[in-house]
Amino acid sequence: MIQTYEQIFLKRADAYQKAMGLFPNARDLEFQLAVTAANIKPGQIVCDAPAGGGYLRGYLPDNIGGYLAVEAAPDFTMHCPLGETDRIVESPLHEIALDDNSVDVCINLAGSHHLEDKTRFYSEAARILKPGGKLVLADVESGTRVDQFLNGYVDKYNSMGHKGVFLNQETAGMVASCGFEIHSDELVGFPWCFKNKSDMGMFCKLLFGIDLVGKDVVMEAVDDDLGFMHGPGQVNMAWGLRFIVATCNT
């Protein structure tokens, strides 16, 4: 059995938050892609589940109606930004502490692979979304180099291990069965961007809890397992997620 999201980030949230704090722009393109996929309209309520440290908030339009940071790990919630229309919702994803039909957009970015029963989250997303509301689900695709890096290299050199259950060809059908109409389903490649390879190695070491080797060894693993691509940074680490966009029809 994989460890639960809560168990993992009870131990790893501090290092993850440190990585995001030291290199806040490394994942700019990833967050921008999620927001673009959501096509958020003025006044809409956006649910970020799981929110981590609320990193998505800075990429959302200024004219949204509110931001709901759904997060189960208390070491993350203390870092979530809070504006006048923002609220932290301390809650697991299988039983989200929000009212029925109360959200316009729900974004799950790179957070579903720690969920053993993903359909419980999909059903909860359908419950909290208004009819016609949008779900953006983005996570690692099973069988890709990113999968192999996380469940291979990270699993080996993170003392807690890493056993992510990633998205696959059946995921869209599972989402649809929980009350959604699928609009798009595609694997999107993009880079994580850094000033140099040393920064890249430190970011990955902290973000993924790689505590059994140093950053120089992590840098070599990225070279071997992931590689690089064109991008706006000086060092552009190849990454990619499967993006599924769906509309709630319940």
Descriptive report:
The protein is of the alpha/beta class and 250 residues long. The protein has a single domain, classed as Vaccinia Virus protein VP39 (Rossmann fold). It has helices at residues 5-22, 28-38, 74-77, 118-128, 145-157, 171-177, 197-207, 215-225; strands spanning 45-48, 66-71, 86-90, 103-109, 129-139, 180-194, 235-248. Helix 1 (5-22) runs antiparallel to helix 7 and helix 7 (197-207) packs across helix 8.
Top keywords for this entry?
alpha/beta, Rossmann fold, 250 residues, 7-stranded mixed sheet
How far apart the termini lie comes to 32 Å
Gross morphology is globular
Sheet of most strands: 7 strands, mixed
Strand order of the largest sheet: 3-2-1-4-5-7-6
Helical fraction: 25-40%
Multimerization state: single chain
**Main CATH class:** Alpha Beta
CATH topology: Rossmann fold
Order of helices and strands: HHEEHEEHEHHEHHE
Proportion of beta-strand residues: 15-25%
What's the number of domains? 1
CATH superfamily: Vaccinia Virus protein VP39
Number of helices: 8
* Rg computed from alpha carbons, rounded to a whole number of angstroms: 17 Å
Please count the beta strands (DSSP E, at least 2 residues each): 7
User: Structural class, judged by helices and strands?
Assistant: alpha/beta
Return the CATH architecture: 3-Layer(aba) Sandwich
